[in-house]
Design brief:
Shape: globular
Number of strands: 8
CATH class: Mainly Beta
Structural class: alpha+beta
CATH topology: Jelly Rolls
Largest sheet: 4 strands, antiparallel
Helix content: 25-40%
Number of domains: 1
Length: about 180
């Protein structure tokens, strides 16, 4: 959790600048494509992060629960929001606006260091999981195993899908034999 390294006093200061918000089941906390400058910490409930697809459909990306961060990408300045977030059940969050947060860390730089470090760690873990999920999706699409071997960094590609390399003749070997 991004607040793990905070003291009780530091968490109290952060909590004071946040706004507690309630979202009933099925409601949107964030909408893909909209401009945003806040992030939220889920207090209770569960939310689903969705990516919009063609034809009004969407792809479920991940489900978050209590103590998880959402919206941190827009908070860090990437605009517009990259995905939508929908409450899967009644959900309570605490929302932090960028400008309020920046004013707080101007007065308390140690809080900023800890908070941004926590966000960076959270994003790094998500990126790592996304890389594994991408590899599994590629393997599935190629007809191979649905899971990448934990001890291996490669995917086994089925023989029928392997590309054959054509040997290009060189000046020293005009027949293309190596």
């Amino acid at each position: 959790m991004f607040l793990n390294s905070m003291s009780a006093e530091e968490m109290n200061l952060i909590e004071r600048i946040g706004v507690v918000r309630h979202f009933p089941q099925g409601s949107s906390l964030m909408v893909e494509g909209e401009i945003g400058s806040s992030f939220m910490l889920v207090l209770t409930g569960t939310v689903e992060v969705r990516k919009r697809l063609r034809g009004g459909k969407y792809k479920k990306l991940v489900v978050f629960k209590a103590c998880d961060l959402i919206g941190e990408i827009a908070f860090l300045g990437v605009q517009p929001r990259t995905a939508s977030v929908v409450a899967l059940e009644d959900t309570e969050v605490i929302e932090f606006e960028r400008n309020d947060f920046l004013r707080l860390i101007e007065k308390h730089p140690a809080i900023g260091v800890k908070a941004y470090r926590g966000m960076a760690e959270e994003l790094a873990q998500r990126l790592s999981r996304s890389g594994e999920e991408l590899m599994n999706a590629i393997a599935w699409a190629l007809g191979g195993p649905r899971r990448v071997d934990e001890d291996s960094e490669s995917i086994t590609v089925p023989p029928q899908l392997r590309l054959t390399r054509q040997k290009v003749p060189s000046a020293s070997d005009p027949a293309g034999k190596v």
